[in-house]
Write a structure and sequence with these properties.
Shape: elongated
Order of helices and strands: HHHHHHEEEEEEEEEEEEEEEEEEEE
Mean pLDDT: 88
Structural class: alpha+beta
Radius of gyration: 41 Å
Distance between the termini: 101 Å
Low-confidence stretches: 15-25, 56-64
Number of helices: 6
Largest sheet: 2 strands, antiparallel
Oligomer: single chain
Helix content: 25-40%
């Protein structure tokens, strides 16, 4: 039996190997991306330097001069100098490391191999693969290089020397070959090499067709009727109620939400002052709608202290000192005349 120290050593070594493999695969994908960017920029450089510094004048002389410039080392250097951003270390390093390959292609291989990306990135420095292939040996992706993942996903490492070739399926698809459908989708068409997954009706967790009658299993919030169709469950009919006393329940397809009652209500069935179960304090029922009670117009005065007057507001009222009076220590006293040193209580 292995000791704890030996097990720990084995664990760290396995972790290091796995981490190294992941880092290496990532580096291979990154190298291919950098190379493709360089090749694309080279083609852009070709277009930008086309007929550079020419236009007008002696056409015959220009054509002779241009033919020399077209394949000149001067033009090559101008293109190479603009392949990378100054801050891109990987790009600049790759160009510097393989400058001799660019010269070889420019002077000797360009006519026979016009596709610089394929000649340089795939066949020469071996950092990329043809589309639909992956890994060090450019093996075909799952489903074949013509239709990786049977057209329903992306092959890991596709077009690079990295990756494991496994399929990352598009939404709606699953499985090693991206031919199966996830829950909520069904196979409208399916054979050994082609699959079309179509979304189920919103009520279905799994299904065999497009309608709510084709559900194999209903989603949460939906229930099966006597004929096997999935219908919305109205949670707002639940007893006891699912919402608080100051809220009303709003049913939605497959779910519900709790909404706050109007502030004039004490309990409600829907939004608005006309949907109250009863009126909140300070409000009264007026022909089915809760309206403000004007406490200041009640037969019995609500502001009983001396020299006060009532001011109504929504759902309540306040008592303030009448004109010519001010509050001092909770009592309304006469505002003194200018020059009068004494305040008198009324």
């Amino acid at each position: 039996m292995l000791s704890f120290r030996q097990l720990l050593w084995l664990f760290f070594n396995l972790a290091f190997i796995l981490l190294s493999q992941c880092t290496h695969a990532k580096d291979l994908k990154s190298s291919c991306h950098t190379c493709k960017q360089i090749a694309d920029n080279f083609i852009k450089g070709l277009d930008q330097t086309k007929k550079q510094n020419f236009g007008g004048g002696n056409t015959a002389w220009e054509e002779r001069a241009l033919s020399k410039y077209e394949t000149s080392e001067i033009r090559l250097v101008e293109i190479l100098e603009n392949l990378c951003e100054s801050s891109s270390f990987d790009c600049n390093h790759m160009v510097e490391e393989h400058e001799d390959h660019f010269e070889t292609w420019w002077f000797k291989r360009q006519k026979k191999h016009p596709d610089l990306y394929k000649w340089f990135c795939i066949d020469t420095i071996n950092v990329c693969c043809l589309k639909g292939t992956f890994g060090p040996d450019c093996n075909a992706c799952v489903g074949g290089s013509e239709r990786p993942c049977h057209g329903n996903g992306v092959c890991d490492g596709d077009g690079t020397r990295g990756g494991n070739g496994r399929c990352n399926c598009d939404h709606g698809y699953k499985g090693e070959f991206c031919l199966d459908c996830i829950d909520g989708y069904f196979n409208e068409i399916r054979n050994d090499t082609f699959s079309l997954c179509t979304e189920c009706h919103s009520s279905c967790k799994t299904c065999t067709g497009l309608t709510n009658e084709d559900c194999e299993k209903c989603k949460t919030g939906w229930g099966e009727d006597d004929e096997g169709a999935c219908l919305d469950v109205n949670e707002c009919l639940n007893d006891p109620p699912l919402c608080k006393e100051d809220q009303y329940c709003l049913n939605t397809d497959g779910s519900f939400s709790c909404k706050g009652c109007d502030k004039v209500c004490s309990g409600c069935t829907e939004a608005g002052p006309d949907k109250c179960q009863s009126c909140a304090p300070g409000y009264q029922d007026t022909e089915g709608t809760c309206t403000d009670v004007n406490e200041c117009e009640q037969p019995d005065a609500v502001c009983t202290a001396g020299n006060q007057e009532c001011v109504n507001n929504k759902g309540s009222y306040i008592c303030i000192c009448a004109s010519g009076y001010e509050e001092q220590e909770g009592v309304c006293v006469t505002i003194p005349e200018p020059g009068n040193q004494y305040n008198s209580l009324d």
